[in-house]
Amino acid sequence: MAHDEQARADQPPDDSATGPSDAPPAALSRRAILTGAASLAGLTAAQAVLSSLNAAPLSSPGLEDPARIPGRQPTPYGQRSTFERTTRLAGATSSLTPLQALHGIVTPSALHFERHHNGVPVIEPARHRLLVHGLVEQPMTFTLEEIKRFPARSRLAFIECSGNSGGEWHTPAGRTVQETHGLFSTSEWTGVPLALLLREVGAKPEATWMLAEGSDAALMARSIPLARALEEALICYAQNGEALRPEQGYPLRLLLPGWEGNANIKWLRRLKLGQAPFMTRDETSHYTDLMPDGTARQFTFDMDAKSVITSPSGGQQVRAGFVEIRGLAWSGRGRITRADVSTDGGHTWHQAQLEDPVLPKCATAFRFPWRWDGQEAMLQSRCTDETGYAQPTRQALVAVRGINSSYHYNAIQTWLVTMDGAVRNVHV
């Protein structure tokens, strides 16, 4: 910084800067921009300069001492630091959560994975309706505001696409944990218990199945066994304390904790009660598990226990010495009761520490202290849930399920640490 500029930065704010100014954009001082003291005439130019600053963070030598200039003024909606660049990995019909870069168990709404079959619809909440009909005493249509008047409930729960890790059935396809396990996220969801809504319409006792249908261009729909759905299902309108994001089903979605992601119908517009599965397109053309004998499992809703080490993980670099191994474990059948870590490809196992909170059908963080000696290592994790089910090895899973399915892959993941500290995905 030039001497004169440093001297100006050391002075109190200049009130004269709040008046009209004919100075060219290049003359707008950083102080004026950051304190909002630039004139209205210069506001557009100031925003352009700020945009430039946001797009390319200043290198350390060029940064001004933040203790010497006023910070940015409050904004109507928060944003992360311009120095943070973690993003989802987006494809044509889905995007993947960067598990390797997150902390704790809650996924920021903006980084929650997405999966859709014909794009994200634009839905005006004031015009959106939810129809509940079929085997009910009184078919009813609810507006969003009417649904919000029911007693609400919030809970933490994960959602995992049934195709998560599906690329691993044949080869170690994913380079990073974002690529292998990124169709998994956890949020706090808020909405109305399905049981309360169905009580309002008078669900008939002979109703045993429910059709849930979305408002997207694919008209995504699934058949849901009613008795189980009544235990925990929520009609959600909020995620992590604010309205659902469009890619998460704005303004309404179904939440079935622990069930495969596609059953959690987004952009929910219709619930119909019946006495048998509705055999929708997506549950006959997709979402069945082809077994080795040629038969197909259908309506495999529960996501079995699964864990993965998120750090160190594929694409990362390990330095010799102390390394805290970190990961996530979850089960669609209840709480995680134990997580173990191996550094030698599963020959020996060590119990990891589970981090509170340990909640049913929710991600649970685990940690294990390790000292890397610079030799080749194979990192693995495995978990057990409250039903006693233990996450299988790849060999055990393939022995039962074969390799013809695209869904419900929950085998133990292996990360190879090579002697140069690089980490990559391997099968053992």
Protein architecture, described:
The chain is of the alpha+beta class and 428 residues long. It has helices at residues 3-9, 30-35, 43-55, 144-148, 177-181, 194-201, 226-232, 281-285, 394-401, and strands at 89-90, 94-96, 114-115, 129-134, 140-143, 153-160, 184-193, 209-214, 221-225, 234-239, 242-243, 253-255, 268-274, 289-290, 296-297, 306-311, 321-330, 336-342, 350-351, 353-354, 364-372, 377-385, 414-417, 423-426. The strands form 6 sheets. It has a 5-stranded mixed sheet with strand order 5-4-13-8-9. Strands 6, 7, 10, 11 and 12 form a 5-stranded antiparallel sheet that branches. The protein has a 5-stranded antiparallel sheet with strand order 19-18-22-23-24, with no helix packed on it.
The major beta sheet can be summarized as: 5 strands, mixed
Q: In terms of per-residue confidence, which ranges show pLDDT below 50 for 5 or more consecutive residues?
A: 1-59
Adjacency order of strands in the biggest sheet? 5-4-13-8-9
CA radius of gyration is 26 Å
Indicate the proportion of strand residues: 25-35%
End-to-end separation: 57 Å
Give me the count of strands. 24
- What sort of overall outline do the alpha carbons produce when their principal axes are compared? globular
Instruction: Give the fraction of residues assigned to helices.
Output: 10-25%
Content-based structural category: alpha+beta
Number of helices, where a helix is a run of at least 4 consecutive DSSP H or I residues: 9
How confident is the prediction overall: mean pLDDT? 88
